[in-house]
Design a protein that fits this description.
By secondary structure, the chain is mainly α. The protein has two domains: 48 residues, no CATH class; 326 residues, Mitochondrial carrier domain (Mitochondrial carrier fold, Alpha/alpha barrel), CATH 1.50.40. The chain has 13 helices and two strands; from the N terminus they run αααααααααααββαα. The protein has a two-stranded antiparallel ribbon with strand order 1-2. α3 packs across α5, α3 crosses α6 and α6 runs antiparallel to α7. The protein starts with a helix and ends with a helix.
Length: 376
């Protein structure tokens, strides 16, 4: 680490020294050249970090997704139950006015956690963890990998190798569509398992993830595994917003005036380590802030997606929810606009810490794996 910093500092000094030979030899020109080059070096953000290879994004993204999934699994179960129509019916029956509705909505996540623990046991808090991990690891691997590769490709094709908001937007959209398409069946199985409330094995509809998958294929066909895919594509907007905000937050954090210590040529190794830790912590917090904002803007699609993925509610032999816009219209008509934000509290409690853990782990593993790769 120290030798690389010395090499970079030496390179910086050599570049500045050579600037006196650019153009005229007059002192004024030398001063101007030096100022221009110093400014350019600051904005280029010369770093000792090695370049990140695509496979590193894939591995680090999977590890980050796994860490976030395990820690926040109980809150994910609460969120899914709050979004289901069974909960909406309960909330409507026990709320006689808007005040009671808000009161029950705020307390519901804690009541559900307690109820699940008391009636279904501690293990029930981690219902769906198996398919959650099976879905999260490849989903995050695909997402981070596709985003990283797309960003490199599109920046070279469209902007001479430089990144900008447009590149981030296109790359995030490609990553979102690819991730949703490959992982929708896994998330559907996880949703069905989380909504299966039987107290014993005999009372449950599904005995396992495999049993759930086979029953869906038998009763609903292959297309049944892709219920809610249209809502997942719509949900890609959340991922796009999160990536855009995250990239902008990173740019703010990496501005020279906000990062003077990290670019200081005289700082010792201990200071560099502490500043690197602060930079990592701020980036992780920025990921949480980006997720918080994106979730509030796009949350209604979460409710619609859960309704489409849950065990079909049949009316006259036909599924009650059978399309993206039809489900939006029906939920809005029967339950009102407030139902579109059912479970938002639990969703934010889960997704914000999840994003902090996931992006923080991804940043850390990316740095570690890149350095191991450079050393090999």
């Amino acid at each position: 680490m120290g030798s690389k910093d010395n090499d970079i500092n030496t390179l910086r000094d050599e570049v500045l020294e050579s600037s006196k030979y650019l153009g005229s030899s007059e002192k004024t020109n030398f001063a101007n050249n030096k100022i221009v080059i110093e400014d350019e070096l600051k904005h280029k953000n010369i770093s000792s970090e090695p370049p990140v290879k695509p496979y590193i994004h894939f591995i680090a993204g999977g590890i980050g997704g796994m860490a976030g999934c395990i820690v926040t699994c109980p809150l994910d179960l609460v969120k899914t139950r709050l979004q289901s129509d069974a909960y909406r019916s309960y909330l409507t029956q026990h709320s006689h006015n808007t005040g009671e509705y808000i009161y029950h909505s705020i307390l519901s996540p804690f009541k559900i956690l307690r109820n699940v623990y008391q009636t279904e046991g501690f293990k029930a808090l981690f219902k769906g963890l198996g398919p959650g991990l099976i879905g999260t690891v490849p989903a995050r691997s695909i997402n981070f990998f596709t985003y990283g590769v797309s960003k490199d490709v599109f920046s070279k094709w469209l902007n001479n190798g430089e990144e900008n908001a447009k590149i981030h937007l296109i790359s995030a959209a490609v990553a979102g569509v690819a991730t949703s398409t490959f992982t929708n069946p896994i998330w559907l199985v996880k949703t069905r398992l989380q909504l299966d409330k039987g107290k014993s094995a005999e009372d449950k509809i599904y005995k396992s993830s495999w049993d759930c998958t086979t029953k869906i294929l038998k009763n609903e066909g292959l297309i049944g595994l892709y219920r809610g895919l249209s809502a997942s594509y719509l949900g890609s907007i959340e991922g796009i917003l999160q990536w855009l905000l995250y990239e902008q937050i990173k740019l703010v954090l990496e501005k020279p005036e906000n990062n003077k210590k990290l670019s200081s040529v005289n700082s010792n190794e201990d200071v560099n380590k502490w500043d690197s830790f602060k930079k990592w912590a701020l980036r992780s917090g920025g990921a949480g802030l980006a997720k918080f904002t994106a979730s509030i803007v796009t949350y209604p699609h979460e409710v619609v997606r859960t309704r489409l993925r849950q065990q079909p509610v049949l009316i006259n032999g036909k599924s009650k929810y059978h399309g993206l816009f039809q489900t939006f219209a029906l939920v809005f008509k029967e339950e009102g606009i407030r139902s579109m934000y059912g479970g938002l509290t639990a969703h934010l409690f889960r997704t914000v810490p999840n994003s902090i853990i996931m992006f923080g782990t991804w940043e850390l593993m990316t740095s570690v794996l890149s350095r191991l790769d450079a050393a090999s």
